[in-house]
Amino acid sequence: MANEIDIIYSKILDRYIEIEYDTGTKLHSLRFVRPGKQLIEKKTRDVTIELERYFEGEPIDFSLDVDISYLSPFEQKVLAETRKIKYGKTITYSELAEKIGSRAVRAVGNALGKNPIPIIIPCHRVVAKKGIGGYSEGIDIKTRLLELEQINANNL
DNA sequence: GACGATAGCCCTT
DNA sequence: AAGGGCTATCGTC
């Protein structure tokens, strides 16, 4: 059976968000789609609704099974550590490296780039010591996500 | 070997 | 101050 895909539109990012679920309870991947083509929104899962509220400004931290077993041990460590970063907080690439007992700062950046489930695994909260750092989906997306969280972090 | 979503140092304007 | 070059570092491909 094919995986199920939910779709919502995020006004603040001006992107459709495609959330792909396994047939089980796990989250498979999350993609950003430019609004060139009109997509039909589809909200069948709880997490989809939570995401929608997240974009409305609710300080939600997602906790849900994700399957990243196909990634390398190092990449899994990086992403696991990334999930611990709380809403509205940021840490640097080097701090994250230190937490997992490595000095491979740049490898951390590379691993984050492989995050199959951005936002849910909040890789946008990892920034450079000076400056914002990179983001595979585009810096503007990262900036907006951080702004959104900055504004609403006081609602915690 | 080369390449990074880095960081730090040292230089020049 | 701010920006550019150089290098250490280390996990992937």
Entry keywords:
two-stranded parallel ribbon, single chain, DNA-binding, alpha+beta, three-stranded antiparallel sheet, 156 residues, 5 strands, Arc Repressor Mutant, subunit A
Structure description:
By secondary structure, the protein is an alpha+beta fold. It has two domains: 52 residues; 81 residues, Winged helix-like DNA-binding domain superfamily/Winged helix DNA-binding domain (Arc Repressor Mutant, subunit A, Orthogonal Bundle). The protein is built from five helices and five strands; from the N terminus they run βββααβααβα. The strands form two sheets. The chain has a three-stranded antiparallel β-sheet, covered by helices on one side. It has a two-stranded parallel ribbon with strand order 4-5. β2 and β3 form a beta hairpin. The mean pLDDT is 95. The structure holds a DNA duplex (13 and 13 nucleotides).
Map the helices and strands.
Layout (H helix, E strand, L loop, with lengths): L3 E7 L4 E7 L5 E7 L12 H11 L16 H11 L7 E2 H7 L5 H8 L13 E2 L11 H14 L4
Parallel strand pairs: 4-5
Antiparallel strand pairs: 1-2, 2-3
The structure holds a DNA duplex (13 and 13 nucleotides).
